[in-house]
Request: fold
Amino acid sequence: MYNPFEEIIQRLDRLEALMGQMHFQNHPAPLPDRECIGGVELAMQLTGLTRSAIEALCRQGQIPHAKQRGKLYFSSGELKDWLRQSKPASDPGQETPIKALPQTIL
Reply:
């Protein structure tokens, strides 16, 4: 059965991703040189993903994180390692973790 709200959510996610890209292009924030712990904002800054995409990856257990009292925490070092491991493979038939991301953010 067709659900019009699904299409609206997908469009909002795409808009959010585009706005985030525009924001980071116009106001690039310096990335931490040393390892630090932060919230969703740190994960957004390091990965370039939207808040909803990061939360979805956390729910699916596909991104390194910790949760305490309902708040998500990320280690910059673990996120950088995760990003290095998530690079697309040279063999198109080989699965990589990055392919698990929702289509709206790829």
User: Anything to note?
Assistant: The chain has four helices and three strands. The two ends are 25 Å apart (CA to CA).
